[in-house]
Specification:
The protein is mainly alpha-helical. The protein has two domains: 17-233 and 244-294 and 302-379, no CATH class; 401-569, Tetratricopeptide repeat domain (Serine Threonine Protein Phosphatase 5, Tetratricopeptide repeat, Alpha Horseshoe). Helices cover 58% and strands 3% of the residues. It has a four-stranded mixed sheet, covered by helices on one side. The N and C termini lie far apart (88 Å).
Length: 580
């Protein structure tokens, strides 16, 4: 049994309520800065997990099948969404509350570890400085960020168990951390740094002591679908161009995360409003640091904690160098915990500087949260996307309130970067509670195969002012439809082309006939109707439409040639058709 690290005995006691004060103050900070996020809509990955776990059995949650992006995270994905969905349905607020509780648990564990290593003053500065980071924005506003929160909770539980010398508890926490997110594979190395730098054990003894945890990581890696699992279930995952930034950019941005300077703040609402919104949280955190530094007794020596913190940061940030991984600020949180442990050890003897730095960080956090970004790993992106999804969901359910089973939805002109439609439309199945619905964007449309279930196909264009605009295939009152939709002609041209490219030739022909009836002078409408009918093998109708196209002003030689070609093939005495 390893004895507690220096400083632990002096910092603990049955009447020590500092941890409750710290966690309570951080909960209040979350309320001032993220309180409006408690009702934010599910987006993107959330619907993949909700759809997968809605009717899943408990046993199936652990199987490495139908994994989003091939990552195996059954604890933080499948089990988390399965439990909360069975308890609360698909209401967002309970999911957000769970994320807050996990974030507070992680920060509470971090405070306990830092206090054990270097005393209460260092612990307060470290945990408050970490809480002020903008990198928490995504895990606290995007429900799917719970994957990182679970990993951080178990990572801190692992390190607390390591510090207390409990190898069994550490092993259990490590396994659960690995089942939450892959970054947990670095935890044994952080434990080695603790054993060598804090407990001052030799490298040989340290490595032998940590060997069981490396073995756990090895077994996990051999089983994981993206790692060793490729050997027994291979798959292709091509590297996306531009996914991995240059190493210099990664280094600069990662080093900027502990200071909220991983990107240049440029608040959308202006600096004055952004700082005003952040001011209550900044004041609260500054007061918390001042409270934590109130004791004048000499803190335990913090040099070892500072060295350990630096090693922790380096190890925690190492996965960001992987060429298959993009860079997002919240990926750097594990390493940032180590960085702030080292910073707090340096700041503990300079409380005014610590107060000023934390207050400045909290103000910058507000500016960063309001800075427009195309990076989905930013708080601004997540808030914007959730706002769009909330409107899209309500508007679609109003305009298509009860789709029949096996309906298919197709969408076009949807704003980019809003996390609307992942895969084949899991959001639709969650919104309507119907597992038979599917959806996609126009380019994904394909005619139903003979063995596919029958059901209607619905088409929608998104309009920034009107919301979802239905584009009806087949028979409709064209006059009324054109009156209601000024873009009717363009919408149906796009729809006709979509149907044709998807192999629904009869439906495409009907659309071109509608368009030709609405604009009888357009050669291409009549000609394309002929192409559709000829593809279907209906040469009589094809000849009729080719002839109509050839007779219109502006017809080219191709249209006239096709008209002549099929005219020679028309049976003698076959009636000519003049229209649809």
């Amino acid at each position: 049994m390893t004895p507690p690290s220096p400083g632990g005995a002096a910092a603990r006691g049955p009447r020590d309520l500092s941890a409750f004060v710290v966690v309570g103050a951080l909960a209040l900070f979350f309320a001032t800065q993220y309180g409006d996020a408690l009702s934010m809509a599910f987006i993107n990955d959330d619907y993949i997990f909700l759809d997968k776990t809605r009717a899943a059995s408990f046993v199936s949650l652990w199987a490495p099948r139908a994994l989003a992006f091939h990552w195996y995270r059954p604890w933080s994905r499948e089990l988390h969404y399965w439990v909360l969905q069975h308890l609360f349905g698909t209401r967002e607020t309970p999911f957000h509350v769970a994320s807050w509780l996990l974030a507070l648990a992680a920060l509470g564990g971090y405070y306990a570890l830092a206090r054990r290593l270097a005393g209460a003053t260092v612990a307060v500065i470290a945990v408050v400085g970490t809480a002020a980071l903008a990198a928490w924005g995504v895990p606290l506003v995007w429900i799917a960020g719970v994957q990182d929160l679970w990993m951080l909770v178990f990572a801190l539980a692992f390190l607390l168990a390591v510090s207390a010398g409990s190898r069994a508890l550490a092993s259990g926490a490590l396994i659960l951390a690995l089942l939450s997110k892959e970054a947990a594979a670095m935890l044994p190395l952080i434990a080695v740094a603790h054993r060598h730098l804090v407990d001052r054990k030799s490298w040989g003894e340290t490595l032998r002591w940590a060997l069981p945890w490396f073995a756990i990581v090895g077994v996990w890696a051999a089983f994981h679908p993206v790692l060793g699992g490729r050997l027994w279930r291979p798959f292709e995952a091509p590297l996306e161009p531009g996914l991995h930034p240059a190493l210099g950019s990664i280094a600069l941005r990662t080093l900027g995360v502990p200071f909220n300077l991983d990107a240049i703040p440029a608040p959308e609402s202006g600096w004055a409003r952004a700082l005003a919104r952040a001011a209550p949280g900044a004041l609260l955190l500054a007061m918390l640091v001042a409270w934590g530094a109130r004791a004048r007794r000499a803190p335990p020596p913090a040099e070892r904690a500072a060295r350990f913190g630096l090693a922790w940061a380096v190890v925690g940030w190492t996965p960001l160098l992987m060429p298959t991984l993009g860079w997002h600020a919240y990926y750097a949180l594990l390493g940032a915990l180590g960085a702030w442990l080292a910073l707090a050890a340096l700041l503990a003897r300079r409380p005014p500087l610590a107060v000023a730095l934390v207050a400045g960080l909290a103000l910058l956090r507000g500016a960063r949260a309001d800075t427009p970004s195309r990076d989905w790993g930013s708080e601004w992106y997540q808030r914007r996307a959730a706002s769009f999804i909330d409107f899209m969901r309500a508007d679609l359910r109003r305009k298509a309130p009860a789709p029949p089973p096996h309906s298919r939805f197709y969408f076009v002109r949807v704003p980019s970067n809003v996390g609307f439609l992942a895969g084949n439309g899991p959001a639709l199945r969650v919104w309507y509670g119907d597992s038979t619905l599917v959806g996609g964007y126009y380019p994904t449309f394909r005619a139903r195969a003979p063995h596919d279930p029958r059901g209607p196909d619905r088409f929608f264009r998104f309009d920034s002012a009107a919301g979802w605009v239905g584009v009806r295939a087949g028979a409709e009152d064209v006059v009324a439809a054109r009156r209601e939709n000024p873009r009717w002609g363009v919408d149906h041209q796009v729809l006709a082309a979509t149907l044709a490219s998807g192999g629904a030739w009869a439906e495409a022909a009907a659309e071109y006939e509608k368009l030709a009836a609405a604009d009888s002078l357009r050669v291409d409408f009549a000609y394309n109707a002929g192409v559709c009918y000829e593809t279907l093998g209906d040469t009589l109708r094809a000849a009729t439409w080719y002839a109509r196209a050839a007779a219109l002003p502006g017809a080219d030689e191709e249209a006239r040639a096709n008209a002549r070609r099929l005219a020679r093939r028309r049976p003698a005495g076959a009636p000519a058709r003049d229209g649809p």
